[in-house]
Amino acid sequence: MQMHGGLGAGYRIAMRDLEIRGAGNLLGTEQSGHVAVIGFELYCRLLRSAVARMRKGEWRPPPTVNLRLDFLTLRGAEAGNGMAGAYLPAGYIPEVRERIEAYRVVSEAGSFAELGRIAAQWRDRYGPWLIEVELLLGYHRVRVAAGLAGVTRLETDGEKIRAWKGLELEMVGSKLPRLTGRTAPDKLAQLEAWLR
Fold it and tell me: Dihedral sign, CA of 93, 97, 98, 99?
């Protein structure tokens, strides 16, 4: 307590308490160390941002779509062997906290407008996109398009596209829709166009 005297002492004591015990459920009685993982400032900023978006009516829940695209992986270590990597390389966003925040923001996007703003922010802040970043944005554009189309599950198997609206499998005539693109960006663009 002697170390924290003077102006702003209460804030420093509270921050030290959060470091020691963690915040856990900030509005309840339970305590755990989860806030320490991302930092109190980032947590508060995220909370303020979410509340502001909800108050303005800007926030839309991200579509819940189960995506399994056999030509794409969201894990950089699995890229290769016919699968392109859709992720944020450490060379593009070097700071781990910023990368985690970027993943959170893009995965919570519920509209094409939000994805467009995110893409523009990334380009301004981190520079031109690498192919992995372009593919990650394309993956989320497909996710949003599927959600807006009412698709709850979307899979690719080679050239075949399987899309379910609830329990109903979408067909073109009496056949499964087909992918004609050869590269991952082409396939993502085709999926997005088909869903719109």
Answer: positive
